[in-house]
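This entry is retained here.
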Amino acid sequence: MIASAVTPQSRSLGPIPPLENAEMLNLAEFLRRYEDMHDVKKAELIEGITHMPSPVRIDLHAKPDGMIHGWLFTYAIEHGLEFYPNATLLLDTENSFQPDAILCSKPRKGGRVWLNAKGYLCGAPELVVEVAASTASIDLRDKLRVYRRNGVNEYIVWRTQDKEVDWFVLKDGEYVPQSLGRDHKLRSSTFAGLVLDVKALLALDGAKLVAALKKG
């Protein structure tokens, strides 16, 4: 659960220390420092440890990221869902992630996801996507465990260097990897008609990716 614990660190009236990579913090102190560092575009708290990613490359992250965004945005607007790119997600007291893409139901009090007083998304979205270049080991180990523990229904990791897509579905408390069909497509178990043409995705063919989605 997400708690708003106040610690001696978060009560300090002195200058706010900067975020440092690999520093151990609780959620309240992590957010306090992150909010104060306006030049930092992405930082995550993973099992109580601060992670500050490397610069983003066009070929291995930025362009693939855009493909995923276009795919999920197209589906979301046609099905009355919410799509959030690179939004801070508060999962529990030691984990604040900034996934590349989130697809979920509308945030509401008592729902799977909700917005806190500061406008941060809290809870367990139905589907999360990470585009993994240099972070593949973290995404498939530490983040996978946290998403699974917090009840995220489906988790996609696009390993751009390996040219592989992993789509995990939560079943009986465990993530089960989906197998690619003969048509080179993967399909959501949560959202009807959410189809991923993996061959088109790896080829960065946005037109085919959206065409396959519209066919369902």
In short: Confidence is low (pLDDT under 50) at residues 3-13. The first strand starts at residue 44 and ends at 46. Residues 8-51 form one domain.
